From TrEMBL, chain A:
<keyword id="KW-0812">Transmembrane</keyword>
<feature type="transmembrane region" description="Helical">
    <location>
        <begin position="62"/>
        <end position="81"/>
    </location>
</feature>
<feature type="domain" description="DUF112">
    <location>
        <begin position="19"/>
        <end position="440"/>
    </location>
</feature>
<feature type="transmembrane region" description="Helical">
    <location>
        <begin position="393"/>
        <end position="412"/>
    </location>
</feature>
<protein>
    <submittedName>
        <fullName>Tripartite tricarboxylate transporter permease</fullName>
    </submittedName>
</protein>
<keyword id="KW-0472">Membrane</keyword>
<feature type="transmembrane region" description="Helical">
    <location>
        <begin position="17"/>
        <end position="50"/>
    </location>
</feature>
<dbReference type="Pfam" id="PF01970">
    <property type="entry name" value="TctA"/>
</dbReference>
<dbReference type="InterPro" id="IPR002823">
    <property type="entry name" value="DUF112_TM"/>
</dbReference>
From TrEMBL, chain B:
<feature type="transmembrane region" description="Helical">
    <location>
        <begin position="21"/>
        <end position="41"/>
    </location>
</feature>
<keyword id="KW-1133">Transmembrane helix</keyword>
<feature type="transmembrane region" description="Helical">
    <location>
        <begin position="127"/>
        <end position="148"/>
    </location>
</feature>
<dbReference type="Pfam" id="PF07331">
    <property type="entry name" value="TctB"/>
</dbReference>
<feature type="transmembrane region" description="Helical">
    <location>
        <begin position="47"/>
        <end position="66"/>
    </location>
</feature>
<feature type="domain" description="DUF1468">
    <location>
        <begin position="24"/>
        <end position="152"/>
    </location>
</feature>
<dbReference type="InterPro" id="IPR009936">
    <property type="entry name" value="DUF1468"/>
</dbReference>
<keyword id="KW-0472">Membrane</keyword>
<protein>
    <submittedName>
        <fullName>Tripartite tricarboxylate transporter TctB family protein</fullName>
    </submittedName>
</protein>
């Protein structure tokens, strides 16, 4: 199945407009990721509106280019100024910045580029070969299994997305509550619509996402001080390619971290930051006699973290595309991008839209090749982006948030929803609530509700249906463990 | 030991622990309203339209209550923040959205941009003028003329005066 779908995918990607979109996405991602505080999630949420009228495959190429580019380039400020451009690059600074202090920033950035490419390619290959198998198995799933998966998605995400599992759960449940607004999917009853026609189809969750990741982050940035985060990062880099010795040194750790990172990324909720910390930690365990020591500017530490975080990008798409359960907040937005075109990610997608899927897979591989090319050729230029003051960027982002939400349905109402979500998100961030579970709750609620109610109708109201299905039972037990194990650990202190 | 910790937390529950987490209290109140209103929805058995909102709202009450019991002031990063700047930015955004039905997107954005740029500390007049005029026009062309998305035009549709683009058909678009 894989081979026979690659031909049509390559034909789709040979279109000059698609090549332009992939290139534009990668460049935008690299630019935004290089600026501290500009995350891949925020960039994709704000620029999603540019894809509304595009062919879905074309839109995904732009968004995946931004995703891969931003996760890669977050390493540049981490190496140069000890400030990760994106959360995924937090582990990169342990060895990247010491290398920079020795005057070897160029060496670290080149290693990071090659490792990001290796991790990314491994994860896309994993996505390409494993996801059809998972989707095939999931075709057997019925309502109880899908309900259990939705619950699992929410609990695992809440348990890994912040310090407080209770706050993560509240955030996810609030997202679910917002998703209940509109016409009841089973009886057609109007829930919380307040006689407003615009609410009949529910709250536009893309507007909510733009508010949570764009406006809330902007308000937070202004409250911290808008123009005090520039940092001089001048360090000239010579040559384009890493040395043969560095390549030989980073290759094994990049491959190993790529495999591990793709696996971690495929766990719902475990995004690039968690993948990078785990792969970095594993590298320090496996290569503990490495010289220089990890933390003192070991090039393999940079490679482990960067391969791990980029490998999570393809990994995150595995549950997203096969089960409709987002792997991280970016993949939640990508689900939104597909749903705008009435395409619902899940096992059926592999039967209904194989050409779209394989265009995404092969396109993501091409995107990683573009990242390698632009990363190596433009390292000197990307490093200078760090000095762009955020006072120049945030006013533009705020306008993009407004136009992005208006563009959803061509009305200002969705901009008000976006603004409301932004204020709520800002208040929640101040109080330590993670926002990613809220977005995932918004996406998972319809899956959870419809499948729960269908299951209960099928069983005549009995809960037996959930524990007589071995898969549903196993997944629900895992969900319970995802909440109780960290909670008990936290109470034990 | 766990029992003891839970008992200690309950003992400490009082006005101060609630004050330290006002958002949790707001969420509990919201959930109670949802439970009350959803219980009025027409019920055709136990899985009617109110079933799921009630289930979710009960979850919010349980986890918010657990959050009040377990959270402390030290969890918060609130002290690092100043509230005046985000309030001003929010006020500007509210004003921007309020005037947009009258001014349209193009003029509304041209009015909003200088205000937010000035507040963001940009003093360069050429940069301010360029961004205030150039960005709205660029976005208008991208969204309204290329993507063919309807943007608010306002009472006087000034945006219609902008020259049209030559028609270019991109395969796969639209």
């Amino acid at each position: 199945m894989v081979v026979e779908n690659i031909g049509p995918a390559l034909a789709n990607l040979a279109d000059p407009f698609v090549i332009f979109l992939m290139t534009a996405g990668v460049l935008l991602g690299i630019i935004m990721g290089s600026i501290p505080g500009m995350t891949a999630t925020m960039t994709i949420a704000v620029l999603l509106s540019f894809t509304f009228t595009m062919d879905p495959a074309h839109g995904m190429m732009l968004l995946l280019g931004i995703y891969g580019g931003a996760v890669y380039s977050g390493s540049i400020p981490a190496i140069l100024i000890r400030t990760p451009g994106t959360p995924s690059a937090a582990a990169t600074l342990f060895d990247g910045h010491p290398l920079s202090k020795k005057g070897e920033a160029g060496r670290a950035i080149k290693a990071s580029t090659v490792a990001s490419f290796i991790g990314g390619v491994i994860s896309v290959l994993a996505l390409m070969f494993f996801s059809p198998v998972i989707a095939g198995a999931a075709l057997e799933f019925r309502s109880p299994e899908f309900f259990a998966l939705a619950v699992f998605g929410l609990t695992i995400i809440a348990s890994v997305s912040g310090d407080s599992i209770t706050k993560g759960m509240v955030s996810g449940l609030l997202g679910m509550l917002v998703a209940t607004v509109g016409i009841d999917p089973i009886t057609g009853f109007h829930r919380y619509t307040f006689d407003m026609a615009k609410l009949l189809t529910g709250v536009e969750f893309i507007a909510v996402m733009i508010g949570l990741f764009g406006i809330a982050e902007g308000l937070r940035k202004y409250s911290q001080g808008i123009d005090d985060d520039t940092d001089e990062a001048a360090q000239e880099m010579t040559g384009v390619f890493p040395s043969r010795a560095d390549l030989k040194s980073i290759m094994p750790v990049s491959v190993g971290s790529g495999v591990l990172g793709a696996f971690i990324g495929s766990i719902p909720g475990a995004g690039g930051d968690i993948a990078a910390f785990i792969t970095y930690n594993e590298a320090t365990r496996w290569l503990k006699d490495s010289v220089p020591a990890f933390g003192d500017g070991n090039i393999r530490g940079v490679a482990a973290a960067e391969s791990g975080n980029n490998a999570s990008t393809g990994g995150a798409l595995i549950p997203t595309l096969t089960l409709g359960i987002p792997g991280d907040s970016v993949s939640a937005i990508l689900i939104g991008a597909l749903m705008v075109h009435d395409i619902n990610p899940g096992p059926g997608l592999y039967q209904d839209e194989p050409e779209l899927l394989y265009t995404i897979f092969v396109g993501f591989l091409v995107i990683y090749i573009l990242i390698l090319i632009f990363g190596l050729l433009g390292a000197n230029y990307w490093a200078r982006l760090i000095n762009i003051p955020s006072s120049h960027i945030w006013p533009v982002i705020l306008v993009l948030c407004v136009i992005g939400s208006i563009a959803l349905r061509g009305n200002v109402f969705d901009a008000w929803v976006m603004l409301g979500a932004g204020v709520l998100g800002y208040a929640m961030r101040l109080r330590g609530y993670p926002l990613a579970p809220m977005v995932l709750g918004l996406i998972l609620a319809p899956i959870a509700e419809v499948n729960l109610r269908r299951s209960l109708v099928l069983s005549g109201g009995s809960l037996d249906i959930f524990y007589t299905s071995p898969i549903a039972l196993l997944v629900l037990l895992l969900s319970a463990a995802a909440i109780t194990v960290p909670a008990v650990r936290s109470v034990r202190g | 030991m766990i029992k003891q910790k839970v008992a200690d937390s309950i003992d400490q529950l009082g006005p101060s622990s609630i004050r330290s987490n006002p958002l949790a209290v707001v969420f509990i109140l919201l959930a109670v309203v949802v439970i009350f209103s959803a219980s009025q929805f027409p019920d055709d058995g136990q899985v009617g339209p109110g079933f799921f909102p009630i289930l979710v709202a009960v979850g919010i009450v349980v986890f918010s209550f657990a959050d009040i019991l377990t959270s402390t002031e030290t969890d918060l990063e609130i002290s690092e923040f100043s509230f005046r700047p985000p309030a001003i930015v929010l006020g500007l955004l509210v004003a921007y959205l309020l005037v947009m039905p009258f001014t349209g997107f193009l003029v509304g954005t041209m009015l909003y941009m200088p205000a937010i740029l000035y507040y963001s500390g940009i003093k360069s007049k050429p940069l301010m003028a360029g961004l205030s005029v150039g960005l709205p026009i660029l976005l208008f062309y991208i969204f309204a003329r290329v993507f063919l998305i309807r943007l608010p035009e306002g009472i006087v549709p000034i945006s219609r005066l902008l020259p049209r683009l030559p028609l270019v058909v991109i395969p796969g678009w639209l």
